[in-house]
Amino acid sequence: MTVTHAVAAPHPESHSHSAGALLRFFVIALTAFLTVVDLFATQAILPSLTRHYGVTPAAMGFAVNASTMGMAVAGLAVGYFSREIDRRKGILISLLLLAIPTALLSTLPSLTVFTLLRVAQGCAWPPPSPSRWLISASTTAPPIRRARLPPTFPETWRAI
What we know:
mainly alpha
C-alpha cells in the first residue's frame, strides 16, 4: 500500500517579507514614531526652553502642552468628518499640516507665538496619530494580515 501526501501550494501571503513590504513597514513605522516625537519629545527639553525664553517652568510647561488643546478640538472635528474623508489622504494632509508649525517652531519665536504654534501642531495631530494608522491598516489590509493585529484591536475598530 502506497501513501501519498498532497502538497499544498504556498499561500501568496506567506512571503509577506518582501523588500517592498519591509520598506513600506519601515516608512510607516518611522513616520508614526517621528510624529509622536514631534509632539511629546518637547517635554524633555523643558529646562532648556525655560532658560531660552526666560520664563518660569510653569509658563513653559503650559506653552509646551498647549498642543493638547488643539488635539481636543481637532479630535472632535476629525470624529465628525472622518466618514467623509479618505483616511489615507487625511493622514497625508495632516502630516503636511503638522510640518508647518513644526518648521516655524525652529525659529524660536516669542512665547506667545510658540504657544500658538503648539496649538496648531495639536490641531494637526488626530488624523496621523498611531491609533489612526492602526485603524487604517485594519480596514485596508488583506484578511490574512488583519489576523496579525493586536488581539484587543478588533473590538476597537468594530466600534468605529
